[in-house]
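User: I'll paste a sequence; please echo it back and then give the predicted structure.

Assistant: Echoing your sequence first, then the prediction.
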Amino acid sequence: MIDLLSAIGKGPETRVKRIEIGKPFIDIAAGFASTEGTVLLMSGGDLDCSRYHILGIKPWLSFTGRGLKQNITICGRSLEFESDPFDALRVILDTYHTEEPSSQLPLTSGLMGYLAYDLKDHIENIPRTSVDDLGLPHICLFAPSVILIHDKKDGSTWLCDNRTHADDSDVISRLKTACAETRTDLPGKRGAHGFKSNMTREEYISSIERIREHIASGDVYQVNFAQRFESEFSDDPFELFKTWYLENPAPFFAYINAGSHYILSTSPERFICRDKAEVETRPIKGTRPRGKDISEDRALKDELEKSEKDDAELSMIVDLMRNDLGKVCECGSVHVAQHRRVEEYGNVFHTVSIVRGRLDRRYDSIDLIRATFPGGSITGCPRIRAMEIIDRLEPNRRHVYTGSIGYLGFNDTMDLSIAIRTALIFNDKMFVSVGGGIVYDSKPQEEYDETLHKGRTIMKISHERDESVNEETAWINGMLRPAGAAHIKISDLGLQYGYGFFETVRFSRGAPRFLAEHIKRFNRAWRELFQDECPDLSWHDIIDQVIDANMLKDKVASVKIMASWGSRLEPPFDHNIIVTARRYVSRLEGKNAGGLGLAVYPHPRQSPLADYKTLNYAYYYLAGKWAMSHGADEALILNPDGSISETNTASIMLIKGETIVRPLSPHCLPGIMEEKVSDIFISWGYKIEQRPVKVEELFASDAVIITNSLIGAVPVTDIDKKALKMRPDICKSINEIIL
């Protein structure tokens, strides 16, 4: 290891200069989010520890380890070796140690990444009684070749160049381009749903009772106990991170692209901050949810401030952290700078204390970490016994949860957060752990509910009495239920044959758009396909319930109304009706083309079922999937005679001079948005013509647009990679009116 480190000498020389940026810092970071080794530390809110945004990109050194097996890569050369991870980390910090430059920035060169909770086993000898089912590194740190820092206090932005080779100039060029751009894309709702815990509610409460027994026996005073939630995940991790940041910023947001996995953190808690000899920690204990109105909000805050239980918990952890810092700080320097201040976040109140000290000159950053890791606020007191109980009662190893995320500077600086409110994305799954401090006076049900309050920022969860915790709430046959409860019997003809139909409604401006037209089309399908009396339901009220339950009232959402036949062939029928709602993301988000590309699907379609949006949707699904595999956004569906019908999700319209041509098809879903857009064109003096259209005619048009109830009107950029004429101004004007 020493030989490999010495190959690059003392590391790259750091060059620092001030630059101007023309867009939000998070949008600059988006251009590098997909690159392995990118680390982004964002400071949300306006607390006194929320000053800097830091982006590290293109690492010249990476250090990962699991157990005693470590790996270090420097400028493309890798070495695997066995070592205590903290010993290896000390060698790296010592080898590349540098004096702080004159700029006084928090970090100009150093390591950025995470320290997993499971590194505790290299500090204390604790029985390993929980399962490490993920097999990920326990330490993952990168030394960026370029660090971008934005000071929120004075508005300045600084570029720290740590390049090791001249051919690294591309990253500087890309960064300067990203900083100069002024366009900002607003993120849509991203994430996972159908979260399931690694223990049932009953198991969680039973474990709390066992912890109370340990406390009564004098084994421990407090234990931080957690449950882990898991869900499927297939979205863009950075877009999810961006959504979280814009919706509920916290002081210690972090995004790490570790290659095989991603870390997304929304932590409110500082673990350890070091600036030369000055050291600080900010333990959090005491939580209350935010109120539904001002009066309830004030009452909950007042309840937290007056809580003797929460006071005792925080005081206990403050004493623990004072003792920890006392191991490595100058005698008499450790003191409580502030005790039990209330901090407000989007979904909770917390009580926080600030403990400070002066690091003894005999000790370094590694000694400081060893003396305090993992943080006492997320283990318990006394720490070792609490960690033993955690390992015994929690079925899975924690990995990054309650570990630390942040940076270790080569200039004797460090700022690490406690990894709570943190998600791990790995192998198309998301893992989120949430816990709380348990004392003898803890009420098990209240402690369980508190984990759900804390996790709501990440999961938007609602709880049922089984092991499922779902992000979404649906209206299912007359009742609001977790979406995971929408089980369909194997005998339902909707499942067996696709015997059913649906409507997709855009919810924006606080109301469902064109609901009457959608219900009219829904009822037409009900009468024709089910040959039964249409359901007498107050659809507007039902949709309002679902929107409110999913906290989408001030958002743009996609509402889906679904009906399946059921399993009974004779009256009384057991038709299923389900209404769901999800945050809607514009199809154009993140695209530079300003429109969508089409590809002609090679399998023509003609079926009377095309007149309805049936659950027999495999043809359209496969067509869309085929289009994506061929580099297009949508599939252009043809009739058997080669004339145009529609796309796999939208109606299509041609603009030719002052005429709007709508392709005529023997069987095609009548588009609600198509009709509304036609009305707008008529009001502008255009004529509407409906007739058969061949593909060749699209290229002779002034513009081609597609429409549906979610996207409004969107330009078509090309067909089979052949460019079309475009009029994006027309679509913009239409959408300003209609969406």
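Residues 473-583 form a domain with the D-amino Acid Aminotransferase; Chain A, domain 1 fold (CATH 3.30.470.10). Residues 161 and 314 are 42 Å apart (CA to CA).
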